[in-house]
Write a structure and sequence with these properties.
Structural class: alpha+beta
Mean pLDDT: 88
Oligomer: single chain
Strand order of the largest sheet: 1-2-3
Helix content: 25-40%
CATH architecture: 4-Layer Sandwich
Largest sheet: 3 strands, antiparallel
CATH topology: Glutamine Phosphoribosylpyrophosphate, subunit 1, domain 1
Distance between the termini: 38 Å
Low-confidence stretches: none
CATH superfamily: (Glycosyl)asparaginase
Length: 102
């Protein structure tokens, strides 16, 4: 499992977010998405907000957040590359190519 957290750093540190996520997967038997959402709830309980990107060695990827938006992207052997910024929806990376070029 690998995880990257972003947001109010102090709250993520107080929640021990990355280690908590790993423990929920390894010892608690939670699914990746369930564990990630629980970690974000723990961050919120410490007056923080933000998001995280987590993945497993099997190629499962989650990117939950509780802010208005979070820039994110992913690519894996078992899914097409995708990007997102505002809202929960992801779009194919090919549809975004060149979008920001003037």
């Amino acid at each position: 499992m690998a995880v990257s957290c972003t947001g109010e750093g102090e709250a993520f540190i107080r929640a021990n977010a990355a280690a908590d996520l790993a423990a929920r997967l390894r010892y608690g038997g939670q699914a990746l998405e369930e564990a990630a959402l629980a970690v974000l709830a723990s961050v919120r309980a410490r007056d923080g907000d933000g998001g995280l990107i987590a993945l497993t060695r099997q190629g499962d990827i989650v990117m939950p957040f509780d802010t208005d938006g979070m820039k994110r992207a992913c690519a894996a052997w078992n899914r097409p590359a995708c990007v997102g910024s505002v809202g929960k929806e992801l779009r194919p990376a090919e549809a975004s190519a060149g979008r920001d070029k003037a």
